Amino acid sequence: AKKGQTMTCADRLGIPVMPDVVFGGRKCSNAAEREENTCAACAITAEAMMMTFLLNNDDFTNDLAKKWEKDIFEDYLDKFNDDNFHFAGKEAPEGYKPMQVNYMAQISIPQELEKQSSQNAFILILSYGLMFLYVSVAIGSFPNPLHSKFLVGFSGILIVIFSILTSISIISMFGMKMSIISTEVVPFLILAIGVDNMFIISKAANRAEGETANEKLANGLAEVGPSITAAAFGEFLAFLVGASTDVPALKCFCIMAALAVLVDFFLQVTCFVAVLSWDAKRVAADRADCFPCIRISNPKPPRDDMVKKFVDKVLIKVIFHPVCEILIVLIFAGLVFLTCWGGPKLGLGLNQNVTMISHSNLYNYFDANDDYGMSGPPGYVVFQKPVDYTDIETQHLLAEMEHAIAKSSYIVPPIRSWLDGWLSYTQKGASWKDTCNVVASPFIESVKAYLKISVDSPCCKVYGICGEQYSTDVQFNEEGTGIIATRIMFTSTALKAQSDYINALISTRSIVDEYNDKFEDLMKKQKASKGDDPKKKGDPSVESLARMEYEDDSWFSDFLNSSPETEDEDLEDSRMLNIFNPAEADAEVGTIFPYSLFYVYYEQYYYIRGVALQSTLLALAAVFIAITLITNGAAAFFAILVVGFTTFDLIGMMWVLNEIIPGFKLEVNGISVVNLVMAVGLSIEFAVHMVGAFLRETGTRRQRARKAVSTMGSSILVGIASTKVIGVFVLLFAPSTLFKIYYFRMYLFIILLGVFLGIFFLPVLLSYVGPPPDIRLMTDKTKVVSSHAKDGAAREQLLN
To answer: Which of 12, 675, 692, 774 could serve as a FRET partner for 571 with CA atoms 20 to 30 Å apart?
Structure first.
C-alpha cells in the first residue's frame, strides 16, 4: 500500500470485508514479539465473530421471514448452544470451552416483551391483591363483624376494576392499541384515586350530622363533594391534554387514564354512595358484614380510628412546631435545589438491558455486543425523489456527501454506493471491459446491466465488479425507463451507551439534512436549465428501500480515499437544541433522509424533553382551570403549587437515586415521561382535599390549617399513601429490572413527595398565607359560625 493508505481486507472473491463488522475483540497474538521488533506484522486474532443474515421482507415474504427466524434460525441456534454445553451428550475433553452463540432476530424484541409481561403478571396480581385486601380491611373496623365494612371495600374495588375495563373497552372500540405501559400504570393510578375517594366519602359520612343514615351521607357528600369533583375533573383534563402528544406510549396512557378517571368518578358518586347507604341500613339493623342474613346480638361499637388519633395527638403537633416548620421549609428548598442542580444532568434513552429478562438470549446478545462489538448497526441514506445521476454535479455532490458521512466519528467507512460501483464499471479504457461486457449507454440500460453482474461471475471474482449486491438499492419506475428511488449504505461505529445511539442519529441526520438542501437546490437548478422531463417522473415508492431488517444485501463498495483531516462534530449544536421542537422533528422529509433500525426507537429523543415539559405544563393548566371552576382560584393556586413541585421534585429525586444506587440509571424516556404525567394526576389527591378542608374551616389561618390536617390527614395517609406503598413495595421483587427502576423507585417517591408536600408543607404554607374561608364550600355548621362573625373582632378572627 502507498504511504498514508491501508491495505484492504477482502474475501476470496476480492470483495472488501470490514474487519470491525465481522470480528470482535481483535488483538495481536504476537504482542510480545512486536514489543521487541516494532516492524513485525501484527498476527491478528479475534475473540468473537459476528454474522449477519439479511432476508427479503416485502408484502409477500414478511410472514415467511418471521417463520424462518422462529422455526429455523432460533431453534437451530438454541440446539447448537445446548449441544456445545453438553458436548452433544458425550464427555467433554479436558480444557474444553464451549462456544456460546448469542443472537438477535427481528422477532426477538416482541418475544422478549411478551415473556417479560408473563413473568411480571404474578407480581402485578400479587400487588393488586394485597392492595385490594388492605382496602377491604382498612376502610372499616376490622375484625368487628358489624362495622368491618368488608363488602363496602370490596364494592369499591369492583368499581375501580369496572372503570379500568370500561376505558379498555372504549379504546378497543375505536381501534386504538394499548401499550404495555398503559396496562401496567393505569391500574395503579385509578386504584390510588378510587381508594382515596372511598375513604374520604366514607369518613365524611361517618362524621356528618343527620337524623337518618341518608341525611348523614348527603351532608358528608356536601362537605367533600366539591374537592372530589375538582380533583376528578382536574385529573381528567390533565390526562386529556396530555393525549395531544405525538409519543404513542404517552398518548395511549393519557387517553386510557382520562377515561378511567371519569368513569371511576361517576361510579364513585353513584354506585359507591348507594353501597354506603345500603351498608348504613345493614349496620342500623345489626346485621353482620358479608353475611347480612345473620343478625348480631349485643354488637360492639367500632374501634377508635388509630390513625386519626395519631394525626390529632402527634402529627399536628409535629407539623406546626416552630422548629419543624423551619425544617419543612428547608427540606422543600433542598428538594427544589436538587432538581435545579441534577435535573439537567439526567441522560436521555432507555438501556435495552433494562427492558430484558436477566440472562435471556437477547440480554446475553447485548452484553456480548458491548464486550466484543466493534461496529454498530447498518443504515441507509435513501433518495426518495428522482435524481439526475448522469449529471456531473450530482455525482460530485453525492461523493461529497459520502465523504462527509464517512468522516463522522459515528460511522465506520467505507460507504457502500451503487453509483460508485457503476462509475468504476463504466470507466473508459478499463481492463474488464470485455470480461464484464460493459454497457456504457444509455444510462438506464447501463445501470440495469451492471446490477445483473453476479458475485459468482468472472467479472466479480477477477476485477471486483459485482453489481448484484446493489440490486435492491435501485428502484425503477413501472416502465423501467427511469430511476425513482435509490439508497446508499453505511455502518455505525460500536454504539455502547444510550448517548452513543442518540448522538449517532443526530450526527448522521445533521449531515444528511445539510446535503438534502444542497440536492434540492441542485434539482431546482437542473429543472430550470433542462426543463422537466415527464419520462423521468414517477411516484416515489421507498418503503422497501427504507427497510433494513430483512434485506438481500452485500458488502461491496468503492470508497473515496482522499479524506482531509477533520475534527469531531460538536453535537450540542442548534440541531441538538431542536429536540425540544416536535414540529421540526415531524417535518416532511425532503429528497433524501437517513434510516437505520435503531432510529425507530431513538427518534423520540429529538423532542422527548419538550414533550415532557409541554405535557406537564398543559396538565397543570388543565388542573388549575378545573379546580378554579369548581372551587375558587385561591384553592387552585395552592393545589397547583403542590402538584407542580411534586412533579418537579420527582425529577431531582431521579438524579439523586442515580447517584446513590449503582447499576442501571433512571433516564428521560417514554416511561419516565408517563410517570411524570401520572405524578400530576396522583399528587392532586394529596393537595386538593387538604385545601378544600382549609377553605371549609373557620378561625385563624393556623387553626384552620390544624383542622384541615385533622379532617383529611388520616384519609390521605390510610386511603392513598398506605395503599400505594403496599402495592409499590411488591414491585421490588419483580423479575424485571424495568419494574424495579422505573416503577418501584419512581412510584415510591411520587408517594413520599406527595405526602411531604401535601400533609407537611402545604398546611404550614396555608397557616401563614392561606386564603379566607369560602362560604360556598362550608357545611351548615360552619356557615352558622361564619354568620355570627359580623362584628369586627370576630370577622378579623375568621379571616385571619
So the answer is: 675
